[in-house]
Every structure is written in structure tokens, then in C-alpha cells.
Amino acid sequence: MRLCEWVALVYFVYIAAAALAVPRAKRVAVAIASLLCAALVRAGAGAPSAIRDWLPVAYILAGYYFTGWLFVAPAPHLESWLLAWDRRLLGNPSTRFASWPRPLVSALEVVYMGCFLIVPGGFALLATTGHSAVADRYWTIVVASEFAAFAPLSVFQTRPPWAIDGKPVLTDPAMHAFASRVVRTITIRVNTFPSGHAAGSLAVAFAVLPVLPAAGAVLLALALAICIACFVCRYHYIIDVVAGALVAVAVWAAVWAARV
Fold this sequence. Notes:
The chain is built from 13 helices and no strands. The protein is mostly helical. Helix 1 runs antiparallel to helix 2 and helix 1 packs parallel to helix 4 (55-68). The longest helix is centred in the N-terminal third of the chain and has 21 residues, at 24-44.
């Protein structure tokens, strides 16, 4: 098995074990779904490379949604701590960016919504330029970063800022309303601390940059824009973003030190 597959396998087993802490009504469903995913990861290791190279996309999505099932109730003290840091650094975070140019705010909303596309997009760049051989290294960096961001949700359970403070005051309320509907529809609607958006998008950039410097630089710029969008548009707390960035850096450094 590839290292990225081992990471996914271990993570799904972890989710199955963490399910013991959720209410009985959800416990069996979470455990069965997670163990089934672990079995599918093991089976996927025998698939042809053309399929195997893309399976981590499914592992990340399954890990994200199944981790969301572990949410039981928000931790008020942790939410207060996260909000306190936002207010310490931004003043009133709901109005702090009210004067930012409308095109800039709209662009931030778009890149935030498109974060899910960056993960497969990064590997698509590698595959279409003849660099499929680095698939395991790419996916190990990305999968490990994403799962390291999702895993704490089993313990640190909080709501996103928009669920507590309401809508921020921005110069493009129509775009924000649309983006918010998208977020409520396709996400687990709870907060990941660290931010999976920050960790995943930066991990993609770090994984591509050494192989395709120009494309990696563009991905890095997009990742930084996603990180900014996280707190400007009140989808994440600043501490989430900082922690997500540190996760991506730590995973990238560990993978390269291990010469995967």
C-alpha cells in the first residue's frame, strides 16, 4: 500500500473508534461507515494506477463528512476563546472588512467556494504534465493535512463564526448570501479547528510547488486568498486559519524529511 493509503486507512479506523463518544443513535452508523471506508481503502490499493491515483479525492470527502457525524454539541468556552482572539486581532470582525472593495470581497467568496476543486485540480496539473509518478507524495501531503485538520473535531467541537455572530457586513451582500447558501448546503456546517480549507489548499500548493514552480506559485496565491476569505467572510476563526497553515507546513516538512 502507498503511504497516503495507510494514512487514510488509519484515519477511518480512528473515526470508528471516536464514534464510541457519540450518542448511541449515531454510534453504529459512524462506526460501520468508517470501517467500510477503511475496507474500501484497502481494496483500492489493488486498483489500476489510473484509478488508484484519484481515489484519495473520495477518501478526503468521506473523511470530512464522516468526521462531521461526530459532532455532538458546541463547547461554549472554546467558542468564546476563538471569538476573543478574533476580536483582539480584528476589533469587531463582523464590520472590520465593510469597506473592502466589492470586487475583492467577491473574489474571496468565489475562491473559498472553489476550495474543493483545488485538491483534485492540483493533482490534475501533475498528471497532465507527466508527473503522475509523484502521486503518493502529493496525496500523502494533502490527505495527511486534511485529516490532521478534521481529526480534532472529535474533541474540539465548535460552531463556525457565522452561526454565532450572524452575517458580516460586506460590500457584496448578494454574493455573500449565495456563498453562504452554498456553504450551508455542501459542508458539515460545523467548525473544523484547524481549518481544513487552510490546511488543504496550502498542502496542495506545497505539494505542487517543487515539481511545477509556476503552477505551484499560482496555487499558493489561491491558498492564501482562501485563508484570508476564511476570516473576512466569517467562515472560520483566525486561530483556525493559523492552525491550519501550521498543519500544512508540518506535514509538508515531515513528508520531505522522510523522502517519500
